[in-house]
Structures are given as structure tokens and as C-alpha cells.
């Protein structure tokens, strides 16, 4: 608990989901060295793991872009969707300050500030896994319920991962 009595990590995420009326399941997640390893451990495909990416606007505000694990943000698509010329991924300290969560654990549930949520359309209609606010845990949610509960913009905002 924080000094204000607010739960930490996955407890904060679960409390926010409950306030929004969105059923979630938080499960232990075994350590993994790659997206593919994490997906295999959970018995799903990499596309079923959705990354919550903090994106900073030129005016200093943020948004959360939710992108399937097998894809990456398409900056031209996201800029057009948001109606701005400049967006960027902030460094880890800024993302932590904006959400209250470390990279790799970020979720829109319980974010320090309720930033606008943009969900890639490829996640719609599926049960997805995402960060749960702390290491070693994963949050499962119906993507359509998430979109409804956050009034998320659901659109094409990603592209295939670049060859590594």
C-alpha cells in the first residue's frame, strides 16, 4: 500500500478494473527472455500479448498505445490518428512518472493519470494478456471490454515488427 492507502502494482490495476466494471484475471507469469518464450509459457501466441506503450506528445501529455506483441507502432498511422506531427517514446523514468509503472509492467489499469488509450484493431475481439503493474504477473482481459471501459480509440495503429 502507498501512504495514501492505494494498493501497489497488480493490486492497483485490479482495483481500477473493478471500479470500471471490467473483469480481469491476474496470474503469475514465469520469467522469460523473449516475447516468444513468454507466449509459450502462457500457452498463447505472441500476438495475444499486448504491449502498453507510453507515447509522449509535443505538448508534454501522454497517451497509451496498446499493440500486439508481434507488431510495433506505425508512427505515421498513430500521428495521423492523434492529429499531431510529433510523438515519441519517452525514456523509462518519464514513462514511470507518467503511469506509476515500470516498463514491462505498464497497463492502462491503475495508471497514475488516466491517459487516452489507443488499441490496435488486431487485438479487438480477443482475450489478451498484458502488463499487470508488477514484474512476474500478467493481466488477462477481453480486449473489447478494455476498449469499452477506457473509451479507447480502436484503429489500425501498428505494422509488422522490423526484421531483427
Quick overview of this protein structure:
This protein is of the alpha+beta class and 164 residues long. The chain is built from five helices and ten strands.
Major beta sheet summary: 5 strands, mixed
**Radius of gyration from the alpha-carbon trace, in angstroms:** 15 Å
Strand order of the largest sheet: 5-2-3-6-9
Strand composition percent: 25-35%
Which class best fits the helix and strand makeup?
alpha+beta
The span between the termini is: 40 Å
* Total domain count: 1
Q: How many distinct beta strands?
A: 10
Q: Report the mean per-residue pLDDT as an integer.
A: 93
CATH architecture: Alpha-Beta Complex
SSE run? HEHEEEHEHEEEHEE
Name the CATH homologous superfamily. YbaK/aminoacyl-tRNA synthetase-associated domain
CATH fold category name:
YbaK protein
Low-confidence stretches: none
| CATH class descriptor name | Alpha Beta
What does this structure look like?
With 164 residues, this protein is of the alpha+beta class. The chain has helices at 9-20, 35-42, 75-82, 92-99, 143-150; strands at residues 24-28, 50-57, 62-68, 71-73, 87-88, 117-120, 127-131, 137-142, 153-155, 158-160. It has a single domain, classed as YbaK/aminoacyl-tRNA synthetase-associated domain (YbaK protein). It has five helices and ten strands. The chain is globular, with a radius of gyration of 15 Å. The model has no long low-confidence stretch (mean pLDDT 93).
Amino acid at each position: 500500500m502507498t501512504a495514501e492507502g492505494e494498493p501497489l502494482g497488480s493490486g492497483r490495476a485490479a482495483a481500477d478494473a473493478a471500479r470500471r466494471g471490467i473483469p480481469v484475471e491476474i496470474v503469475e507469469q514465469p520469467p522469460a527472455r523473449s516475447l516468444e518464450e513468454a507466449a509459450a509459457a502462457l500457452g498463447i501466441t505472441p500476438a495475444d500479448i499486448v504491449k502498453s506503450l507510453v507515447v509522449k506528445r509535443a505538448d508534454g501529455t501522454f497517451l497509451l498505445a496498446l499493440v500486439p506483441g508481434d507488431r510495433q507502432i506505425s508512427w505515421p498511422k498513430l500521428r495521423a490518428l492523434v492529429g499531431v506531427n510529433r510523438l515519441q517514446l519517452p525514456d523509462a523514468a518519464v514513462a514511470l512518472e507518467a503511469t506509476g509503472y515500470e516498463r514491462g509492467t505498464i497497463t492502462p489499469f491503475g495508471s497514475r493519470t488516466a491517459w487516452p488509450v489507443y488499441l490496435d484493431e488486431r487485438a479487438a475481439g480477443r482475450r489478451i494478456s498484458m502488463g499487470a503493474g508488477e514484474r512476474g504477473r500478467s493481466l488477462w482481459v477481453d480486449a473489447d471490454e478494455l476498449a469499452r471501459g477506457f473509451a479507447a480509440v480502436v484503429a489500425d495503429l501498428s505494422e509488422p515488427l522490423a526484421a531483427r
